[in-house]
Amino acid sequence: MKMKLSTAGLRTTPFLVIGSGIAGLYTALKLAEIADVTLISKDMLEESNTSYAQGGIAVALSPADSPDSHYKDTIKAGAGLCLPPAVTALVNEGPERVRELIAWGVPFDFDAVAGNFLMTREAAHSFPRVLHADGDATGREISKALARRVRSHPRITVKEYHYAVALLTGEEGCYGALVLDETGTQTSLLAEATILATGGCGQIFTDTTNPAVATGDGLALAYLAGAPLADLEFVQFHPTALHLDGAPSFLITEAVRGEGGLLRNRKGVRFMPSYHPQAELAPRDVVARSVWAEMAKTGSDHVFLDLSLLSAELIKRRFPNIYETCLGYGLDITKEPIPVAPAAHYMMGGVAVDLYGRTALPGLFACGEVANPGVHGANRLASNSLLDGLVFGHHIFEYLQSGGWTRPALPPELTAVFPTETNPEDLTADRLTLKELASAHLGIIRREEDLQNAQRRLAPATPAGPVPLSRPYLELQNMRLLVRLMLEAACTRRESRGSHYRADYPETDPNWRKRIVFSPAGISFIPADQSFDWPW
């Protein structure tokens, strides 16, 4: 559904940032060095995927480590689909961006005696390069530090509990967004440049480490406005989320395995060495599939993460958040193994952007999990996501600071496009049905027959009447749109690569070293080593 809106009498802010994870907060702070910024957050400022990130931020800070080693690990994990220039930027610029966080007061764990930051090793890393804060609360500490700076910054206007429902576009690009405040009142926010930093879409699955706000809104907004999406078949499932009756799929960070935690099946048998030479520290996609295979083999809905090789003192000091959370559910992890199962964790796919964060729509930028500059390929290397938000948020800042973009004159009228995927009778029931469908057919193991059956069930429907502009309704429509596109991507890629595993095409096919791109005009392909080039 399209809506036309008059621009008469509307004010324009220089920069509009949508989203308040690490990418949104950091980018807003940098852009405020240039001009005024309006930042909108769907919930409170600190509620984002970033706040739930435990493991840390991967960065080659140690003199014994190097960006080259980090580069090689990232490329290897990405299974042939990483864009080398994007990875080069990530690993080379990462140290400076992290030093900026340190200067801004993020309290990363530090060994005062040795005089260095504490680092840990995570899966598929060749070196302990994961920097953490408060043991296993890295994301929370980063969010708190950045949010404090944002709230107190004189050039940043914060609008919490504001939900972006559509981008506002004209013939020459994007001019801002239409948003709903917590009362449901509509407001048009116009901007010289609009930056999407809305995070991922884990909520389309029944089991996810993502918070309730992660419904993929930014992906849907960009697509409906005409900006292509790429690599939507690649969803990372974290192999170890807490699996207890009555408990959410609480993340059990990979750092637990980095410190010596072992995976065992329901019979108590350690199984990872039989699946991969790196055992518990194999790439995430490998560990998740191995856990899934053991669950199927033993007829269980979980496996166990055994911490018996770690002292109680180490567990409490290094993983206080996990320890306290599990204790709250009656599980003492210093004495008992943790029941775990895979859960949807991260979307490698996203809005197709170039290395400056530009989308195909002039005036619209994207960074963080919602964006896809090609840095993660088919499988993200552990703890690279927070660094991604910093590095590519900084690229947007550098581009806009250089004067590389000047918005065309504001037209008298703008267009907002809304998703019309279905006619829901019961929003809660329809949302649960969608999540169950996605989990059953877009999970760790995929098959063409299942994917096609799911596609038939999700054929778009003509709306019976006007589209209600409410958050519950539009979240469901956005989620349904994304599931439909993800099913098509998974069905189209007839091979197995990284996080995308097809039981009917179990091998990696070198002919599929290309990226699947979706736009409202249809589906297209580009070579894996070719960056998006948007000629604004």
UniProtKB/TrEMBL annotation:
One of its GO terms (cellular component) is cytoplasm. Residues 473-518 form the Fumarate reductase/succinate dehydrogenase flavoprotein-like C-terminal domain. It is found in: Cytoplasm. Its EC number is 1.4.3.16. Its cofactor is FAD. The active site is at R284. Its main location: cytoplasm. Keywords: FAD, Flavoprotein, Membrane, Oxidoreductase, Pyridine nucleotide biosynthesis, Transmembrane, Transmembrane helix. Residues 16-386 form the FAD-dependent oxidoreductase 2 FAD-binding domain. Pathway: Cofactor biosynthesis; NAD(+) biosynthesis; iminoaspartate from L-aspartate (oxidase route): step 1/1. Catalyzes the oxidation of L-aspartate to iminoaspartate. PANTHER family: L-ASPARTATE OXIDASE, L-ASPARTATE OXIDASE, CHLOROPLASTIC. This is L-aspartate oxidase. It comes from Capillibacterium thermochitinicola. The lineage of its organism: Bacteria, Bacillati, Bacillota, Capillibacterium.
